[in-house]
Amino acid sequence: MPLISNARRWFTWLMCLSACGLPALSGAADYPSRPITIVVGYSPGGANDVLARIVAEKLTLSLGQPVIVENRPGVASIVGASYVAKAKPDGYTLLMGASGPIVFNHVLYAKLPYAPQDFAPITLVGTFPLVMLTQASNPAKSLADMVSFAKQNPDKVNFSAPSASFQLIAELFNGKTGTKFQHIPYKGSNDAITAVMTQDVTMTLIDTGPALTALQGGRVKAMAVTSGERLKDLPNVPTMTELGVDINVSFWSGLLAPAGTPAPIVKKIQEEVTKVLEMPDVKKRISVLAITPTSNTPEQFEKMIQSEIVAWRQVATEKNIKAN
User: Is residue 1 part of a domain?
Assistant: First the structure.
């Protein structure tokens, strides 16, 4: 009789597990069983898109299922981010998100169709600092020279920025140095750099990829980088912190899933992406984009996102910066 009673209890317990989430656990164990889509909120060809395709190619091999990149461009990557935020949380729709839509949009836009809690961060994929560029003919030989001139001539200095997120970095520089470089908006990174070349603006703080390309032309020069260490591609360019300016900032790209995605699935993706980023050929391909392959745990990634939102919201509030 006790054996029958125990059997009934086990049966009842298993039925409860099935009703309360056993399929989700089983799905995590079997994941993936069909193609995975990585959504990119930008047009094809950009750094975020290329990064997603490099990762997708390797994940296809390691996971044994096709990993497809789907571009859903829109203003400030809002379209792509919103799409993934509302997707089924089963691990089959992911976002190659950037610091722009995941951090800066929450700081700069009064209203968005998605919130930070709509995502389950998986892992960072790559980071890149910004480079301060000025005209090659600028008589300033150092960052200190530029700061000194700017303080003496506040009405004669300005900067170009392709979006409000880049503007925030430049305003942070103003705050740290006591300068008053005036903001001049431009549509893209290349436009912002061209404005420096043509001397329409004094300087720009811009992403490394376009900056390195521009530097090869010889019409601009690099004054400093915002990374904690010097860039291997620009070994002679000092960091802001080396020069006494307390700025250590990098933009980033990373993988996120819809909130509610089972933790075992998130962990599996994170582990596979970490392995991908350690592959020598992947490191080489990503370095061409002037991006440093970087991974972390879901917990570390989430904590980083939350802390960055708080920090940059303070800067935006102090400088009254909002997205147009």
Answer: no
CA distance 169 to 175: 10
What are the tokens at 242? 């080396």
User: How many CB atoms are located within 10 Å of the residue 179 CB?
Assistant: 18
Which tens digits make up the pLDDT trace of 92-104? 999 999 999 999 9
Name the CA dihedral angle for 155, 159, 163, 168, rounded to a multiple of 10 degrees: -80
Q: What is the CATH number of the domain that holds 78?
A: 3.40.190.150
In order, the DSSP letters of 219-286 are SEEEEEE-SSS--TTSTTSPBTTTTT-----EEEEEEEEETT--HHHHHHHHHHHHHHHTSHHHHHHH
The whole domain housing 189 covers 129-225
pTM, two decimal places: 0.82
Report if residue 59 sits inside a domain. Answer: yes
Q: Rounded to the nearest 5 degrees, what angle is found at the Cα of 46, between the Cα atoms of 34 and 97?
A: 55
Residues 165, 115 share a domain = no
Contact 92, 70 (CB under 8 A): no
Per-residue tokens: 101 = 């839509």
Whole-angstrom distance, CA of residue 18 vs CA of residue 181: 62
Whole-number Å distance between alpha carbons of 59 and 94: 13
The predicted pLDDT at position 160 comes to: 96
Chain-centroid distance of CA 244 in Å reads 26
The CATH number assigned to the domain holding 133 equals: 3.40.190.10
